[in-house]
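Sample intake sheet
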Amino acid sequence: MYIVSACLVGVRCRYDGESREDPKVLEILGGRAVPVCPEQLGGLPTPRPRAEFVGGDGEDVLDGRARVVSEEGVDVTDFFLRGAEEVLRIARLLGVREVVFKDKSPSCGVRVVWVEGREVPGVGVTSALLMRNGLSVRAAEDGGGGSP
């Protein structure tokens, strides 16, 4: 069983109200995936203003050194932290150990995120929390996580 970014399996939950359905992910994971959107689980609406990091990435948010701020200048860090905790709770309840996420997201980014208007190496808030708790988190852009 896997956890997967809901937008990758066709759920219209991205900040812009769209999805980023990835047929490769659907094919590889089949019916063995639990779709989640950390931002929705944290209480943010869809659609919502785009958000990015200020002061670091998801690791830095967990350590209190960075924030997540919407394009309107609103601090939405608490929503991102709440969503990350909810995804971790789901993973623990279901015994999930592997995650396939959409890169570049302030929640789900695995290799690349947006920090202060620049695309930089880093991880999202949810990815950071899951990794700290021993889960394997991979980017869909890396092939959907390999063979299940």
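Comment: The radius of gyration is 14 Å. Strands lie at 2-5, 33-36, 51-54, 67-70, 98-101, 112-115, 118-121, 136-139.
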